[in-house]
Request: fold
Amino acid sequence: MLFERKGRVAILTLNRESKLNALRAKTVREFAEDLVRIESDPEIGAVILTGKGRAFCAGADIFEYSAMNSRDEFMAFQMRGEKLHQSIENLSKPVIAAINGLALGGGFELALTCDIILASESSRFGFPEIRIGLIPGGGGTQRLPKIVGPKTAKRIFMTGEDITPQEAHRLGVVSEVVPGDQLMAKTLELAEEIAEKSPSAVTALKRLVNMGTLGDFGQVLPYERMMVTYLYDTDESRARVRDFVEKRGKR
Reply:
């Protein structure tokens, strides 16, 4: 995880380019530490989250969790990600996602926890978990339907199809689509504009909007976690995950 400051804006960059910035336990831990650092710094007024290379984040590191031997270990893995997402939503400063490329599975879920999303023209979104017998396990089953509606969300979840940035914009997921070479400049401009506003007012707006849209989130997340853990431990899902890892390992 890379941390950078530009004036009153903090820039966090996922930095596992060779793995499409897939989230592993070490990355999640570093990310959480950076959020604590940002929360305690009154000079930071806004945060940008992006990825290095051709992906924003391709989701959880399947190679890491395919090696887990128990439901408890997998559930602990899910809970770390869940806690990170809640930390982003509860952060007093706005977080703007600059989606530079692939935002899939847990990467899409990560983007959905941010307050505003800008996307490059070459970006792609999606929830491919169904292809390996799993479901989104980091709040995606709750966050996406609240934006695009339940029927559209079910189609996205159940097909595992990719979504273009233009479609994500039409659905209300993305606030702006920009050329790739302008993405960071546009995002930084927006972040700087917000950072100059009243910190108290910005924090209040973030919390009030979240309160109105997240609903009974805390009651649903444990059930989502339980279901994805159950599916992870089925013979079918384990076979699909093993097949995925073996095919990717040969590349």
In short: Strands lie at 2-6, 9-14, 46-51, 55-57, 95-99, 102-104, 116-120, 124-126, 162-163, 176-178.
